[in-house]
Amino acid sequence: MPKLKTKSGAKKRFSRTATGKIKMNVAHKRHRLISKPQKMKRKARGTVTLQKGDANLVKWYMPYLRG
């Protein structure tokens, strides 16, 4: 049985928590921050866990993350 391939973009962006949920960083916080509202920048701090449907898609991209 051959090894399964992982999507390169997904392995850079997602990781798994200890309980098996998928964790990601929030987008749009790298540059041009002056033109973005303070409320948006505050909400973009840290990481978020994905909803079930989105997490299933990420697990499809990363077969060894399912574990």
In short:
This protein is an alpha+beta fold and 67 residues long. It contains 3 helices and 3 strands, in the order αββαβα.
Radius of gyration (Å):
15 Å
Rounded to the nearest angstrom, the distance between the terminal CA atoms is: 17 Å
Biggest sheet, spatial arrangement of strands: 1-2-3
The arrangement of helices and strands along the chain is: HEEHEH
Number of helices: 3
Task: State the major sheet.
Answer: 3 strands, antiparallel
- Percent of residues in beta strands? 5-15%
What's the β-strand tally? 3
Arithmetic mean pLDDT? 94
Overall, the morphology is elongated
The helix content is 25-40%
Quickly give the structural class. Answer: alpha+beta
> Which residues sit in consecutive blocks of at least 5 with pLDDT less than 50?
none
What does this structure look like?
The chain is an alpha+beta fold and 67 residues long. The chain is 33% helix and 15% strand.
Question: Layout of SSEs?
Answer:
Elements lengths: L7 H6 E3 L5 E4 L12 H6 L3 E3 L2 H10 L6
Antiparallel strand pairs: 1-2, 2-3
Descriptive tags:
single chain, 67 residues, three-stranded antiparallel sheet, 3 helices, 3 strands, elongated
